[in-house]
Each structure stands twice: as C-alpha cells, then as structure tokens.
Write a structure and sequence with these properties.
- The structure is a single chain.
- β7 (199-201) and β8 (207-220) form a beta hairpin.
- By secondary structure, the chain is mainly β.
- The longest helix has 22 residues, at 8-29.
- 11% of the residues lie in helices and 44% in strands.
- The chain has 3 helices and 13 strands, in the order αβββββαβββββαβββ.
Amino acid sequence: MRHAMKPFASLGFLCAVFLCAVPLAARMALAEDEMPTPDDRWAVSGVLENDLFAGTDRHYTNGVLASALSPQDETLGLPADWWNVLPGHRGGASKARIGFHLGQSMFTPEDIGVSAPQPDDRPYGAWLHGGVSMVSESAHELRALTLDLGVVGPAAFGEEAQSFVHDVIGSDEPQGWDNQIRNEPTITLAYDHRWQNVFELRPENGIGVDLMPHVSGALGNAYTYAGAGATLRFGQNLPDDFGPLSIRPGSIGSPLYRPSGGFSWYLFAGAEGRAVARNIFLDGNSFKDSASVSKKPLVGDLVLGASMAYERVRLTYSFVMRSKEFDGQDAPDRFASLTLTLKF
C-alpha cells in the first residue's frame, strides 16, 4: 500500500474527534448535575477542509486539524506571568488558557494526472505540523500567541495520505508527487487578536446579529503574512464566543466555544485580507532548489456558513472562496469545511 498507513497515526486522532464526539456528548448529558460549568471544561475541535465539497480537486485540496483548548485559568503548571506577553492581558482581569493543535495540509496542481513537472502550476506540497498556544480572554477580546512546529516535503506524508483517500473514494491516483517541494522543518510564530460584539443587536425573541473584527499575523519559513477581517453572525441564541475554528492561513473564528444553553443556530459571513511575504507552498524551499511559482502579495478569503449547537456540541459548515494566489492561476479557489466542537 505504498506505506499508506504511516501518516495516519496522527490523522487517526483527527478522525476519532468526529467519530466519538456525539456519543460521548450524549453519555455526558446523563451526568449533567455533576458536570462543571462551560468555562471549566476543555473544548476539543476537529476540522476537515476539502475542495471535493466544492466540486474541485486542485491547489489547496485538503486540510485536517485537531485542536484542544483548556478551561479558563488552566495553564497546566506553566507560570501565569508568561501570559503577560499578550497585549492587554491583565492578571486576574483576564482568563488564561492553553491550547494545542495537530494537523496536515495538502496542495497539488490542477491536473494531478500528469507525472512530469508542471512549472506554471502550483507545486505539490504537504505540511504536517502541531503546536501550542497561549490564549487570553477579557472584556470581549481574545488574544492568542501560537508556536507551530512542523515539516514540509515527503516527510509530511502528503502523497501517502492523498493516494490512500483517493483509493478509498475511487478517485484518480495522483501522479506527480515526485515533483513536490523538498523536506524542510518549519517554525512559525503566529498572533491573532479578536474583538467580540463591536456591533450587537439581540432582541427579546432571541434572534440577534453581531459583528466580530480580527487581526492576524504569522512569521516563519512556512508562512509570513499580516491579515485583517471581520465576521457577521445572524441567528438564534448566539453563543458567547468568536466563531468556528478554521485552518491557517485562514483565521476566521477561534478554538474557544462557550455554549449558550439549549439549541442555537446562526448564519455567518466573514472576510479576510492578507498581505503575504512568504508562502513555502508557492515560494518553494528556503535553502534548496525546488518547484515554485510567483505568488501574489495580496490574498483574500470570503467565507459563508451555518452553525448549529445543542448543549455542548457544535457543528459548522463553511464555504470558502479564496482569491488567486499565484501568477498564471486561471480562477480563484474554493473549498468547504466541516468543524465539530465538543465541550467536556
């Protein structure tokens, strides 16, 4: 099987998030009286992004991410003073949390049936990565400083993962992974800052609307960029959080989820623009010759979606339209995502 199972030690955890969350939530509901309050629970999220949901198979073709965020003021023994590096964090007035993530992203050219190099199209590439975040929340603001470590190239198991999935679903076998970018360790330092309820309207009937702007940035050999955007939500019993999680470089939403109690739903529209100084999946390797294309310095995302939640389980569907990322790209990309979040 071309060693197809090697990369799935980490990806198996991501699948477990989806397969186990609903029955686990039902079992926990039986002991509701003994359970802690929402802010005293861990939040676990699983994200699956794939262009198959949008009817394409090219460029950013798949991303999976598992994320865990601690309860408020749970830092797993790390000194609380460390959180003071976050702008606006104020000791007892701010809630300190620690987060973890593990994920894999894959990129291909438009025609995966060609085995020869395609110098005018996006290179094959994969990213296997994980990291830790310091998260601070206070007065309708959320800040997160994230250290991400990973690897790109064959060591990220993109070929094995895509070949395995395509074999399962009966799609064409990708032919060009021999031309992928080469092995390189990655280190990225990222910062996200979000504001909640800059505009808010919540009438007595429970149907409300709110607006949440954000800024984001990353510095590293995988990604270096600065971005800004906002998300508008409209729905019933809007949860007191910052929207559903997405996979970097997109940064609509966050891992924080605070249930509003009972059933809630909302529709949302988000937009983000990024000034991109480095994208290893377009620029190629940092210190070796590799496949590359000329990237565009400005990239924008438009996100439309719907979210439903009951008690401590939230399910979100998002559709993303991403502007052209490199010279010669014939059309913007689109993909969709499913995000499942569980509080336990």
